[in-house]
Amino acid sequence: LKPHLRRAARALRLAKRLSREPSWTLWRQADVGRTLFLRLARLRPHSAYLHRCPCGRSKPQQLCMAKVDASQFFKDASPQRGLRRAAAFLRRLRETTGKSAVAVARTAKAQGFLCKHTRPDTGEHTTIPFECILQALLYASRDDYCVLGDLVVQRTTGWPMGGSMSEPATLVDLGEDIY
């Protein structure tokens, strides 16, 4: 089961990246500086704060510091909303590309391409249909019990922490707000 969930998670990440839809996801950490400045250039700054902080201190540049906080990002995720948004995303992707699956490379790097769900698996790629991605998301959303010693605990919100689908499901769920 775990390998299937991992492949579906990788397929969902690849689908999002290959879709070319707007995303705040940083696909390569090496690009963090360039990406922040490109995105900052798209914002319309308030003229009073170009070189002055709201606290009153002057600042040498428009952007002096950026805080990237993944923990707050994950707290806002909703499995129910994420399922709806993932289904809508994959439907849009199918309509705009005519593709219904992701061919995931059998390598350590996340590589692949969009394809038809009828494409057979090869030694180099595994074909993951969009429907399998949605089934894996549904499974992960319902996987809400864990064991701590002898204690059984039920998760009330969010995706299973550390689970394969946690990051890509949150990506699609919260990334939808900027689409």
Radius of gyration: 19 Å
- Give the SSE string: HHHHEEEHEEH
Contiguous runs where pLDDT drops below 50 for at least 5 residues: none
* Structural class by secondary-structure content: alpha+beta
Please, what is the average pLDDT? 84
Give the end-to-end Cα distance, rounded to a whole number of Å: 32 Å
Shape: globular
Describe the protein in words:
By secondary structure, the protein is an alpha+beta fold. The chain is built from 6 helices and 5 strands. The protein has helices at residues 2-19, 32-42, 70-75, 79-97, 130-142, 166-175, and strands spanning 101-105, 112-115, 125-129, 145-148, 151-154. The strands form 2 sheets. It has a 3-stranded antiparallel β-sheet with strand order 2-1-3. The longest helix has 19 residues, at 79-97.
What topology does this entry show?
Elements: H1 2-19, H2 32-42, H3 70-75, H4 79-97, E1 101-105, E2 112-115, E3 125-129, H5 130-142, E4 145-148, E5 151-154, H6 166-175
Antiparallel strand pairs: 1-2, 1-3, 4-5
Provide a concise account of the structure shown.
This protein is of the alpha+beta class and 179 residues long. It has helices at 2-19, 32-42, 70-75, 79-97, 130-142, 166-175; strands at 101-105, 112-115, 125-129, 145-148, 151-154. It is globular and about 60 Å long.
Keywords:
179 residues; three-stranded antiparallel β-sheet; 6 helices; 5 strands; 12% strand; globular
